Amino acid sequence: MTQRGKQHTRSRYDLIAPLYNVLEWPIEQLLFKSWRKQLWDQITGPNVLEIGVGTGKNISYYPEDIEVTGIDLSPGMLKQAKQRLTEKQEVHLTLKEMDAQQMDFSDDTFDDVVATFVFCSVPDPILGLKEALRVTKPGGKLHLLEHMRADGTALASAMDKLDNPIHYLSGVHIARRTVSNVKSAGWDIENVHDLTSGGIVKKIKAIKPH
Predict the structure, then answer these.
(1) What one-character DSSP code corresponds to residue 205?
(2) pTM, whole model, 2 decimals?
(3) At a CB cut-off of 8 Å and minimum separation 6, what does 83 contact?
(4) Among 26, 90, 34, 25, which residue's Cα sits nearest to residue 55?
(5) For position 1, what pLDDT does the model report?
(6) Residues 187, 128: contact at Cβ < 8 Å?
(7) What is the three-class DSSP state of 22?
(8) Which residues contact 48 (CB under 8 A, 6 or more apart)?
(9) What value, to the nearest 5°, has the Cα angle with vertex 74 and ends 125 and 111?
(10) pLDDT value for 89
(11) Which domains does the chain have, with CATH numbers?
(12) Contact 154, 90 (CB under 8 A)
């Protein structure tokens, strides 16, 4: 199931990659840009992993003096990120095609792990979050921006019903319980901040236990 899910997700993101930035431009300008900046202002590294680097939307917000490794499942998305990187020569970023559920990194490699709107599309999110835990140093931090299942019951029920068709079309799940998934993967939650009403978008910060 995970392999089939991975292929489905890759195909959907490869298909949409050339238009991805255009389609998300309105909400990016209205909301996402400020949230990205707030998140990256907290990253100290120096050795940082960005899971689901996508088209490279976070590149402009990387702090100075950190080394970032950005991974993504989709070659199409990475192609867009490489084009953006050519415009930011001062950024220390290495891009790799890689599955978040099975990373080619040694244990305890990174000081910080970052993902923005990614674990809605990882086929097995708990497996991906366990891999993130494995490659993070003890005491290292996980920083997430994620949209997820609403806190309210009525809207949550509607999201549950729409989750499968939306995932089939886009590769994205809209009803993930990401805070619970982070805990289930073994992370210690440091704080959770609601960015929208109903808790649909949250900023999550967690730490790897020593």
Answers:
(1) E
(2) 0.93
(3) 56
(4) 25
(5) 47
(6) no
(7) helix
(8) 66, 67, 68, 69, 110, 111, 112, 113, 114
(9) 55
(10) 66
(11) 2-207 (3.40.50.150)
(12) no
The first and second tokens of residue 29, run together, are 């300008």
Instruction: Give bridge partners of residue 110 from the DSSP assignment.
Output: 136
| Rounded distance between C-alpha atoms, residue 98 and residue 112, angstroms | 18
Comparing CA positions, the residue from 166, 174, 171, 206 lying closest to residue 190 is 206
Task: Give every strand in the sheet of 47-51, ordered side by side.
Answer: 93-97, 67-72, 47-51, 110-116, 136-147, 201-207, 188-194
Q: What is the DSSP string of 32-93?
A: IHHHHHHHHTT---SEEEEE--TTTTTGGGPPTT-EEEEEES-HHHHHHHHHHHTT-TT--E
**Closest by Cα among 1, 2, 34 to 130:** 2
The pair of structure tokens assigned to 50 is 């960005």
Report residue 167's pLDDT band, with 50, 70 and 90 as the boundaries.
very high
Q: What is the pLDDT of residues 107-148, one digit of tens each?
A: 999 999 999 999 999 999 999 999 999 999 999 999 999 999
